[in-house]
Amino acid sequence: MISEFIKKNKYIIIGLSLVVIVISTSIGIFFLTFSKSNLQAPIIIESDDDFLDYDFTGNGTQDNPYIIEDFRIGAKGVNSIGISISNTNSYVIIKTCVVYSDFIGISLMDVASGTVWIINNTCISTSGDGGGIGLSSTNNCSIKNNVCTNFMQGIHLNYASHCVIKSNIIKENNYQGINIRYSSFNIISNNTVKINPQHGIALVGDANSNEIYYNVLIDNAFSETYNVDGRLTGTINSQGFDEGNNNFWYDDVSKQGNWWSDYQGIGNYSIDGPAGTEDKYPYEIS
Description:
The protein has 286 residues and is mainly beta. It has helices at 2-8, 10-37, and strands spanning 43-45, 66-69, 72-75, 81-86, 92-95, 98-101, 104-109, 116-119, 122-125, 131-136, 142-144, 147-149, 153-158, 164-166, 169-171, 176-181, 187-189, 192-194, 201-204, 211-213, 216-218, 225-228, 232-235, 240-242, 259-260, 269-270, 278-279, 283-284. A hairpin with a 3-residue loop joins β22 (225-228) and β23 (232-235). The longest helix has 28 residues, at 10-37.
């Protein structure tokens, strides 16, 4: 009986099916458009007083920091920044935000030492330029459990020291994965850095006494040559680069280094750059 019903009413059934498909497609397009159009304006903080312009929880003290949480931000245009904090002394946690930006996702500049934590955010470039998370002249900050993709650099430190960069996913950027520039005494650990055309992790200029360990570096450095700040060029032979002094590409206590997708399991892992450093305890990715 069911088969006869289908035969007799097949055109009605086909028509209803097409209506369902059209409605479903329209709903999908509507929600996609709504999602894109529902992005919020960038958050720009240039002094402690600027926090009062926003309805953040907290009061900026160490015991009750401002919480910038669950924003979906779109930053369009040249030099645009999704979340920018500069010249502040307040304590701040930036967490679980999603930032689409043409240039910088999250930026800290000249903030007081040890006052900002950047946790569990996703930064996506809409132009292929700029950087996902950038710190400048800022010390003792934490960057943990974030995702940065499609920028020129995923995470960039410039004159920023004593920071912790941990458990982030830095993937498919267009230049380097993590760039530590003129910055010292930072710990870069437990990050997954993959498919960035030049070095996955680069220590540039006077970048000294940094520790890099427990990171997983996969299929970076697939360009034939590297170019660092337009000053240093060479053939890429490694997923890491080091121009500084006294940097450790392993944990000297546990005697453990990093996982490298191009390591063959024999000997040390050599790092590109004039420092001539090595990961003495590398791991092979099986």
